[in-house]
Amino acid sequence: MSKSNETLMQRRMAAVPRGVGQIHPIFAERAENATVWDVEGREYIDFAGGIAVLNTGHLHPKVVAAVQAQLGKLSHTCFQVLAYEPYVELCERIAARVPGDFAKKTLLVTSGSEAVENAVKIARAATGRAGVIAFTSGYHGRTMMTLALTGKKVPYAAGMGLMPGGVFRAQYPCALHGVSVDDAIASIERIFKNDAEPRDIAAIVIEPVQGEGGFHVAPKDFLQRLRALCDQHGILLIADEVQTGAGRTGSFFAMEQLGVVPDLTTFAKSIAGGFPLSGVCGKAEVMDVIAPGGLGGTYAGSPIACAAALAVLEVFEEEQLLARSRALGEMMTARLRQLQGKHPVIAEVRGLGAMVAMELCEGGDPHKPAAELTGKIVARAREKGLILLSCGSYGNVIRILVPLTVPDEQLQRGLAILAECFDELA
To answer: Where are the beta strands (DSSP E) in 332-391?
Structure first.
């Protein structure tokens, strides 16, 4: 009996909780670089990249070879029982890439949420404080602590009650929506005045470019003022680079371009080319505050994922993917701005490197998010063979996370499909 998306969806609905969302009613059968084929044999251009996980493309040959070689040696020991060199080598390589002219150490875990959870644990232990400041529209994960940090209740925390306390929300600067850098800094000062003294705050957690929040880029002067505020009050600055890291923005970590050095950096997603791996890297003396046994996990930093990540780093060097990211960003931004000139519903095109998005608003009015149209465009693009993702606080942002290894011709074909969707629907 041949498989179909419809019959598999029926099985899925019966077997999988409805809380596990699914953007496209498609079951993937196989993939290569920036192309995915479903179980019915239909081909799609992948502008989603597994939500920023496939910067080196689906099944990059070098990543596949590294994983196959590691499988021939060992797949698991638990690093805390019997260590293995790929873990240590990857920690060294990551520390060399994370911004900061100081000694660093690296912890490897499994998911982005786990990385952020551990960064908060480390910050609390290092400072002896418990409070954390996060930002409006931020996304940091779906575990309990990271849900407290995530600035979007629906759908991520809907019906789950109050999240862990000690988290305070500041404004993320956004010129389109009238939040200036001064406004954002003032919102932190209000927290200090009304909610928690600076001496109660362990860390400020920020995405240098918001992911789920809509690809808003933090202004350099805001980050500089944030750094100064942290230094003034003994607060640790945590850069959540889960989505921005591994070259998506044109530098390996976005903070390299934004001129500010964080105390701790979290990473995940594309670091291992599709295999589950994440981590925290930061100042050695901060990373060392927790006693043996306080960090880790059974599958944390698996040998398979470490081998994949080391291969990803080689691919970035050999194929000059950071330069490629910047070039892709320029191509995408130029094409989307042409589209914006034709369709006033596109209120803004923004991003950093190849992390590019456009916000849709009725008549271009930022106060009137065009979420319904956004959903229709994503669906129509799928019908035409293009996989897209939406995001943003109001679901009115279309984001592009295409693999950095996508051929130019395929990229342009995908952008042409997107333009067709606007011509038909906007």
So the answer is: 346-352, 355-360, 386-387, 389-391
Let me know: does 407 contact 224? Beta carbons within 8 Å.
no
In this structure, are residues 35 and 46 in contact, taking their beta carbons and an 8 Å threshold?
A: yes
Closest CA to 404 of 312, 339, 334: 312
Dist CA 403 CA 35 (whole Å): 10
d(CA 282, CA 323): 26
User: What DSSP string runs through 268-299?
Assistant: -GGGGTTS--EEEEEEHHHHTTSPTTSS--TT
Model pLDDT for residues 287-330, shown as the tens digit of each residue: 999 999 999 999 999 999 999 999 999 999 999 999 999 999 99
* Cα(143)–Cα(268) distance, integer angstroms: 15
Question: Mean per-residue pLDDT for 373-395?
Answer: 97
Residue type, 121: K
CA distance 49 to 397: 17
Question: 167-170 and 131-135: which strand pairing?
Answer: parallel
pLDDT bucket at 2, cuts 50 / 70 / 90 = confident
pTM exceeds 0.90, yes or no: yes
Distance CA 402, CA 48 (A): 6
Confidence of residue 1 (pLDDT cuts 50, 70, 90): low
Asked if residues 271 and 312 have their Cβ atoms less than 8 Å apart, the reply is: yes
**Are 93 and 106 spatial neighbours (Cβ–Cβ below 8 Å)?**
no
Question: 5-59+320-425: what CATH class?
Answer: alpha beta
- Cα 226 from chain centre: 21
**CATH of the domain spanning 64-318, picked from 3.40.50.970, 3.90.180.10, 3.40.640.10, 3.30.830.10:** 3.40.640.10
Terminal CA-CA length for the chain = 41
CB crowding 237-258: b at 16 or more within 10 Å, else e: bbbbbbbbbbbbbbbbbbbbbb
Beta strands in 171-285 (DSSP E): 201-206, 236-240, 264-267, 278-283
Q: Are the folds of 5-59+320-425 and 64-318 the same?
A: no
- Where do the structural domains in the chain lie, given as residue ranges? 5-59+320-425, 64-318
